[in-house]
Specification:
alpha+beta; Beta-Lactamase; 3-stranded antiparallel sheet; 2 helices; 3 strands; elongated
Length: 130
């Protein structure tokens, strides 16, 4: 049995070294990375706070929901935070943090649930149902 000849290697053209970025672009990149790192650390701290409260009082749902509302408002940089519960076609406020009650919004009554608010996102506006 004879071995086959090795296929010829393709000749590659020499490539120029990649151009270096100007210091201006590097500074902008560093600032962007620092901002994203700070946001990531804030999210991790918020998650840690919520998990700590859950582990301390797993049977006390109101404390956990209040902590979620507080940390969500802090992470989003909002003055208010609300946790809603969907009951049928209504939304019920389960926990709130901030000046929501001071604005005259009834906290005990539910509001109609539309298709837009029936599937809320992680950081949806508490006033999306208006």
């Amino acid at each position: 049995m004879r071995r086959r000849a090795k296929p010829a290697k393709a000749k590659l053209k020499a490539m120029r070294p990649a151009a270096r970025k100007s210091p201006k672009n590097v500074d902008a990149t560093v600032r962007d990375l620092e901002r994203r790192l700070a946001e990531s650390q804030a999210r991790e701290q918020a998650t840690s706070d919520v998990l700590r409260i859950i582990s301390r009082s797993p049977a006390d749902l109101s404390t956990v929901l209040l902590t979620i509302a507080e940390t969500a408002a802090r992470v989003c940089g909002a003055s208010d935070g609300v946790v809603f519960l969907t009951i049928g076609t209504r939304l019920r406020i389960m926990a709130h943090h901030g000046a929501i009650g001071a604005r005259g919004v009834p906290l005990s009554t539910g509001c109609p649930c539309t298709s837009r608010t029936s599937r809320p996102s992680r950081a949806s506006s508490p006033w999306a149902w208006r």
